[in-house]
Write a structure and sequence with these properties.
Structural class: alpha+beta
Radius of gyration: 23 Å
Distance between the termini: 25 Å
Strand order of the largest sheet: 3-2-4-1-10-9-11
Largest sheet: 7 strands, antiparallel
Length: 499
């Protein structure tokens, strides 16, 4: 999972891109980068670390130009400690292109092989994003026949990318001397939205992973980029768009709404905050069926993303709601930290308990999800140490039993606590007196209530159905081997072919 942004401005954009990346920092903490365009030259700076640490005054001064793009990186495929895999990426032919990508290609190995043997393009990293950039560059060269670039050839290149690439991809690219292009995979798995603002120097456009990056920088949200659609903004600020996929259907990743997106974002017509309130409503009904409400003294969220669900659950069940866990905001999100040991160590640094809120009480803790179980187990132990009598646990998401191959770092089933365990067994593993999961149907409906036009969701980590149609047990086993972990026997992924 990454955060990407592109600005086609009427004045210098370096500060604007920096500010927008700060607003997207929750989507990636591994590395950050910005590339701007000025007088037919690209200026770039990228490094490992948080946005505030990567960019200094001297770096910002070198990022000249009225257009540019940036990324905050959370590594999945091609995960590496090398700054070489930080984005933006760059190729010098054709035209010169800088490129940022959010998502994960599922056929990147096959594409890399074809790029080398057929397209004669060299890939210098193990990043699927570099593969996608070179596929786009090759198709751009083919569609323009080596000459000048126009809208038809640009959109034809994107259409060719859609035919070749499988997986999740939201992309923004700068093409030297031509402008900026943004496109989204035909399923719309990863989010991308468009914003606009009027200035005294002219119209400015911004494309970003989440609407909060737009509105936080003074832009007005215009709309989401549609699945399979490409948007082109030329050097004069003129915008054109075209549907470039033969078949497209909005199928957003449901985990964006559960966990990744900021609550103040709008995504595919859905308020993230309202969706999480709805999740609390549905989860409350399930809690009422599964637990004795008379045994629950207080409902408490595990901050931050579960707070709306916990508040709504408490209100629906007429239970007391309190804040008993305090978050240290200078520790990163444990779910997206690389390495199990780092995640486990950071839990106690990240959260502390207010003893008086727990002492002698039966507590229902509400979290957005349970993935590996590391954080949940540590928090239950912490709450018991603070004096809680009983500790119940509720998850606003269903059991995570399958890897996500579209950009979320949970690639092996062996790492997932719910794989091969029923609800009672997971409760024992995390040390809870009772556990309630959200139903998948209720989770999807909590979002669909806010936008009935979303007919399907990418919910593979819950149901094992991979919408790109190219994921099978052999694929998952290969992923497991790359991390030295074998998948559990008897668990099989299924494919759901394109419409």
């Amino acid at each position: 999972m990454c955060g990407i942004v592109g600005v086609a401005g009427a004045s210098p954009v370096n500060q604007l891109i920096y500010d927008s990346l700060l607003l997207l920092q929750h989507r990636g903490q591994d590395a950050a980068g910005i590339a701007t365009s000025h007088d037919q030259f690209f200026n770039m700076h990228k490094a490992q670390g948080l946005v505030r640490d990567v960019f200094r005054t001297r770096n910002m001064r070198s990022l000249l130009g009225n257009s540019g793009l940036g990324q905050v990186r959370y590594p999945t495929a091609g995960s590496s400690d090398s700054v070489d895999e930080a984005q933006p990426f760059y190729v010098n032919a054709p035209f010169g292109i800088t490129f940022v990508h959010n998502g994960n290609l599922t056929n990147w190995r096959e594409l890399r092989e074809a790029l080398f043997k057929v397209d004669r393009r060299h890939i210098n990293t193990n990043s699927d994003s570099e593969v996608l950039l070179n596929v786009f560059a090759h198709e751009l060269q083919r569609s323009s026949s080596g000459g000048s670039l126009d809208e038809d050839s640009l959109f034809a290149a994107v259409a060719a990318v859609h035919r070749r690439a499988k997986g999740a991809y939201a992309v923004i690219a700068q093409i030297a001397s031509y402008g900026m292009v943004a496109f989204r995979d035909p399923h719309g798995i990863r989010p991308l939205c468009l914003g606009r603002q009027e200035t005294d120097k002219g119209v400015e456009w911004m494309v970003a992973s989440e609407s909060v990056a737009l509105t936080g920088c003074g832009f007005t949200l215009v709309r989401d980029v549609q699945p399979g659609e490409a948007i082109f903004i030329d050097l004069d600020g003129r915008l054109s768009s075209r549907q470039c996929a033969e078949h497209s259907l909005l199928t957003p990743c449901v985990f964006e709404y559960v966990y990744f997106a900021r609550p103040d974002s709008l995504m595919d017509g859905v308020s993230i905050y309202d969706a999480r309130l709805n999740m609390g409503e549905y989860l409350g009904d399930n809690v009422a069926k599964s637990l004795r409400l008379g045994e629950i003294d207080v409902v408490m969220p595990i901050p931050d993303s579960s707070r709306p669900s916990a508040m709504q659950l408490a209100a629906r069940l007429n239970l007391s709601y309190r804040e008993g866990l305090i978050k240290n905001r200078y520790v990163g999100r444990t779910f997206i930290m690389p390495g199990q040991a780092v995640r486990k160590k950071s839990v106690r640094q990240k959260l502390s308990a207010i003893d008086m809120e727990f002492r002698g009480k039966n507590v229902l803790l509400v979290d957005d999800s349970i993935v590996r179980g590391t954080t949940s187990r540590e928090i239950v132990d912490m709450v018991r140490a603070a004096g809680a009598n009983k500790v119940f646990f509720a998850s606003a998401a269903p059991p995570v039993r399958f890897p996500n191959v579209y950009g979320i770092d949970m690639p092996t089933q062996a790492e997932l606590i719910a794989t091969g365990r029923d609800t009672d067994e997971v409760a024992r593993e995390i040390g809870a007196d009772g556990l309630v999961y959200q139903n998948l149907e209720d989770l999807e409906q909590s979002i669909r209530d806010l936008n009935p036009d979303i007919q399907r969701f990418e919910s593979s980590c819950f149901n094992g159905c991979y919408i790109t149609g190219d994921i099978d047990a052999a694929y998952l086993e290969r992923l497991s081997r790359t991390r030295g972990i074998r998948p559990p026997a008897g668990e099989m992924a299924t494919n759901e072919q394109d419409d």
